[in-house]
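FIELD: query
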Amino acid sequence: MERLPAGEPVWDLKFDEKAGMDARDRQTFLDEIDAEDLANLFVFSHGWGTSEQGARSLYDMMFPLIRDAASGAPDLGRVGFAGIYWPSLWFPDTPAMPPRLADSTQAGTSAVRDDNAGTAALSGSEIATSLRPGFVDPKQQDTVTQIGQLIDEGEAAAGSGESDLAKEQRLQELNQLLKSLVPPAPDHGEFEDSGETALLLTDDPKAAYQAAAEAFGSAPAGSSTQGIGDWFTNAINGAKEAVRVLSYNVMKARAGEIGRSGLGPLLADLHLRSTGLRVHLIGHSFGARLVSFALSGVGEPADSPIASLLLLQGAFSHWSFAHAQDNPFGKPGALNAWADRVHGPLVATFSVSDWAVCRWYPKASFLAQDDVQDAVASRWGGMGSDGFQAVKPAADRLMPADGDTNYNFSANSFFRVDATAVINNVKGQPFAGAHSDIRKPAIAQLVISAAAVHT
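FIELD: result
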């Protein structure tokens, strides 16, 4: 345990990829929490592609901001902080072409053009080197290395006289290696959309990888899924996109498992030891999925210490808490039955400047056969693109640029917060846009607005 300058305690909660936590660290955390006699504990989880150093930097900035915001809410009492560390995967930075708005002949309308994830510029070796440390199993690490080698060999063969049959065999080999790394579907009975597996588990990599290249903007000029032009270069570029989608799929599964099997039971034990402690869960990106799935592992509502849930640009389905009636999948979302584990408000920010979630997240699921392109964003959208969908009761809020507002949050309700005026810095992030633009006082004030709701 460390302390902020004013004395507030800060704990590091470190989980491995299987949701494991060192037993001594776990017990020490529970003992120290009990001894500190806190009123409120803020638990924050980082998101995708974040190293331990990057996560620490996030917490070092946000915890003092949250503490300062809490000073304006005297009813909160003594506060403490916990930062979650979990092994997310780092896909290498790409020279993406940000979305641009084309002029329209119809006033007030626009269309996105020039979408390009920039993945084609990466070599297979660069991708493998970046992703390999995210896997602990040596066999999986070797598989990642093999995938990188096959991509580089495929690029070298693209301009050769190699037969189409031999090229298709290369794609099949790549396909089998990718399939071996796809996490098994969770066997918990809840429904969550998983359209990205259509690409990863395809039996027709020739067509699927070309379609992926077109969707992510990496198809070379003159190519198409009909085989016109340099179809194999198109397919190899699409294979790189498939590896990107794999990294997303692995992080998605990992975050959910750590929340359900790691953080959730820890919070239940915490409640047994410190019955009066109010816990406020905050998650960014895939960290939002992690803290959300903790609800399904905390036990019964009476066993839950969770007083508020704040999802900052969540990179998981906006249908996750949905009821079946208005869900286009026709089933309740994976977390529909667990929302009552939060005794206060459930809050999700969204921003049109978050290109990672607004643009690329739905494209990861584009191969679902029952979708048309115009419906992809709404059907496969992420939490950070428009907030909770098909939930009741629900209300909308607007975050002003200065963050100075009374959100009038209430317990047991869902709130969608349009944070575009604050989460909007896209400079230097051509792929993700403003996805990680959260280190701001306005966000800390939002945290406290949710935490200040007493039940």
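FIELD: remark
The first helix runs from residue 23 to 36.
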